[in-house]
Design brief:
The structure is a single chain. Helix content is about 30%, strand content about 15%. It is globular and about 95 Å long. With about 625 residues, the chain is of the alpha+beta class.
Length: about 625
Amino acid sequence: MNKPSGHLLAGFAALGAGALHASAVGLHAETPQLARIFVVMALVQLGVGVALVLRPRATFLAASLVVNTIAVGGWLLTRLVGISWVDGLEVREGPQIADTLCAGLGALSAALALGLLVVGSAPLAAPRSLNAALPLAAVGFAVVIGMWNGATHVHDHSTGDHAAGTDHHSDTTASGDGHDHSSSGAALATGESASDAAAHDHATNWPRPYDPAIGIDISGVDGVSTEQEARARELILATQRELPRWSDYDEAVAQGWVSIGDESTGHEHLVNRRLIVDGKFLDPTAPESLVYEVKGSSKTLVSAMFMADLGTAIDDPELTEFAGPLMQWHVHDNLCFRNNAQGRSVVAGVLDAQGNCPPGSILGGIGIAMVHVWIAAHPCGPFAALEGEGAGRAAVSDQDRVDMCAHDHGTESGSLSVAASAADTGAARIDLSGMPGVLPDERRRAEDLLYSTRTVLPKFSDTAKAEAAGFTTIGDGATGYEHYINWKYINDEHQLNPEFPESLVYQIDPATRKKKLVSAMFMMGDEYTLDNVPNVGGPLTQWHIHNNLCFSRDPAVFGSTRVVGVTSPKGACQFGIKLRENPMIHVWIVPHKCGPFAALEGVGAGQVRAGEEQLCDHAHAGA
């Protein structure tokens, strides 16, 4: 092989590595830092490759040597130990076809560059010069194989603050019983595990209400061995003892826990990525996730959420045999994430019935098995899951889960935890059962949204405080209801979040002209229409738009605007301008004759999806 052929092959290899890095950018969009690294690496490798092919100079050889050595070295680190300071690379991954081919091409380019630099102008002994088509075809074939494999490969990092896998080994477990729970001793479940019968048999005398002030009542549960009961009891006690050190929310954040932005559900999860990969299993001194109950501006630590090894099935014996039927592991494999204004991934919603995420978000999470251990009272036991979407998916049906009680959480679910909130804000969990066609998950989502809104929204009761927070009136008080809108909230990262409501609705007393906060009006971002809005509560909830209002000016430019009229029969504004028709929905914090999600009347009702009638929920009138 002579020098020109060596330059060509080094250039082709660098081009191939750059192409594979470029193809990986979209696959890692959920981790912006990593995606940007791939963009930079792709551009540099492609640039060096083109330079070597077109102009075989020593300068470009040196550049290829440096760039590709860095690329290969970084790849080796991710396969051996992980890179803790790069989001998405904290966890050591096994070699995959795509990344191995990319590293191989980079190594080939670097090796050829080094050889040509060392040899200098002396030709390498070879019977003939390489045909340029042969190395080009070989590199092209490798790139196609790598891209094809990369498009179907799921990496060991995910979106949001559940984003890293784990390397947990239970050499330091909460039980301290010396029992070996290491992942090396438990193979991933590939079929019916030996413990399936115990794990799937829903015990008739479990779960039971749990109150730490009374004691731990986990004895005599069907199918639970003495060892399993002892481990479970010690885990509960250790969690009660250790977890309160993070009772201060701000202190937890300072120590590395990061919110996934789900506070509007009434419970907010904070996740510490570095603890996910610390090699510990069910260790209350290093909980992977902290769960805070959110009541207005108050956040109370109520639970740990422990996470298992990356790739460990939720019915793996390592998990199911720890506490037997006392404990139910679950996963969240339908959560969608988007980046907020700070570049942090937060929950944006869940997959719809067609398996699609809300616009602007992507599927996150990698099915890490997890379980709650509560330090606050819970009607469904010390290992209870949350409700609705927060319950995740278990290896058994909801009817057989041992972390859900009675499977009817309408009003009783708040019996141990809602009383304080009711005293603070007047909020209470409303039972929205009774409407035909509403699925259980839809009902729970609607109940969660109603409860969280009634809990949080009263902080905006004073219009002066609302204005200080950025809300401005649209001047429609003559209708009896006045809308204050925070225009910056419409296209932010928050959706259906009463901490960041896009609009506040005040009822005006005709005699005193005093304004009383009565409702939130949540508005979706510009990418939404009535055809792709989130399904909150099925038939319980109805979105609407306003396509016939005229406004004085563009709030995107001026920060505020006022309603100045309605459109003509032809749909045009004689005065003012029309704004984008963002979908919106009311959530009432006072009783309403048409239910808690009713629209206003008259012009204020807006327009609903074609073929629908304006909703009046008589089943929950006055709720």
